[in-house]
Amino acid sequence: MENATDATLNLKNLALTTERALIGRGLNLETCQNLGLKSLTHHGGIDKVAQPYIRLNKLYAYKVRPITAKGDHFWIGGEGKGQYFFNEDALRDHKDEPLIITEGEFDSICLLGNGYKRVVSVPNGALEKSIPVGDEYSNNAFPYLENAINLLIESNVSQIVLCTDGDKAGQTLREDLALRLGKARCRFVEYPFKRNSEERCKDINEVFQNWGERGVHQVIEKSKWFPINGVYRLSDLPPIEEPEVFRAGLGSLDTHLGLRLGDFSVCTGIPGHGKSTFVNDYMCRMIQKHGLKVAFASFEQPPQTDHKRNLVRWYLEKPTGNNFENIHQSELKKAEAWIDENIRFIIKEDEEDATIDWVLDRMRACVIQHDVDVIVLDPYNEIDHKKSSDQSSTDYVGDAIKKLKRFAKNYKVHVMVVAHPTKLTPKDQEGNLPIPNLYHIEDSRHWNNKCDQGLVVYRQKNATLIRVAKSRYHEILGPTGNVLFYFSQETGKYYEAEDIEEIT
Predict the structure, then answer these.
(1) What's the CATH number where 134 sits?
(2) Model confidence, pTM
(3) What are the percentages of helix, strand and coil residues in the chain, rounded to 5?
(4) pLDDT under 50 in the chain at which residues?
(5) Which structural domain range is residue 194 located in?
(6) First-to-last CA distance in the chain?
(7) Which has the closest alpha carbon to 248: 278, 272, 275, 269?
């Protein structure tokens, strides 16, 4: 399809090098030409492919991308960029065929070149994290569904094959689309292994490159219905990726303590015994070791002072001084850059009430806008708790925990709550308070019953006991147990006692 703006946009018919690259991807050249793909000579003389977005037979934009790699795409053209399906007009035609939705344009082109006619692609790929139906960000994330809603009604589309990528993001997109389109009419695909490999093909284009047209048709024809609530055969169920278990690198504690996205954990300890300091060390290790992003809702530690000092000390492994006088400016800037890249802070303004719903709203923004993986509420006791007059404290805490657990599961993040215990008595002969447990947390027994993992931090003379007091999934995360640590004021880190040769 020619357009008067092509010349002004420096778009040309497919260059020979572009044609060869498309063929190398296993794409049918005639299909590419019929769809109106163009070449664009970009910076450095590198040819990129411009994929036309056409609606009601009118070209309104191009999506430009390299052929051999993902990412680095950009849009040119008029309004509506990223708001509609690629090849949307296929929804208006071939109504006797199932609709196939892919994650990328090249996958759609691959299917079109292999005889399928009613094929569209989402315009902006997959999100890393799922957005629940009804969430305020949902419409912004899936505008192409809203804009095609009249074309996607069941009388027009009775069967939908979701042909998303086989990775985690593709599975997230598949689930999000099925929930919004209705699982009763959706099927999902499973990709075969590559030739002479133990690795599966990641998408339908790769299936064609490995197994040709026959392989493509087998994948589509063997697609399975999404199960609806009821009783299923195991083979009917879509695959579920087991959440990865992250270990902090804290010696023997790693055999007891693991962190999974989607879980809810609790940490308690006597005030002043170092539970916030331990959580700070634990989360920083998760950032350093696994690249997780963390948000702190720390209502007792101002980020600009206390949090900053602790994080800079941990990162540089040296004491900072009250005003960072012990740190060279170049080191401080490096530490600040690390904090900005990996950590977010939830802070309430003076006139605001940080209710549980207020906190949940800020947590949601951290996940969606900043791609946060772990959220720490420290301490829970400082949240502004407003229960109804007919609600007991126990019921209120139970409802609050239920909201936090549902958030962790729906958004696939780990939520950890740091909570103070009630006053503990009596002291022993040496004047020490007994080791608290999760039932000692203020207001409710629900903390022990509903958490996936529960931690206790207890200082014993010059050492600190870290106790995993609750482990719901002990076969996966590790059994309950105790490990003794020493804390270094110099580095802000905990070290297992048996690994320390000399205590200073």
Answers:
(1) 3.40.1360.10
(2) 0.65
(3) 35, 20, 45
(4) 1-5, 7-8, 500-504
(5) 83-227
(6) 76
(7) 278
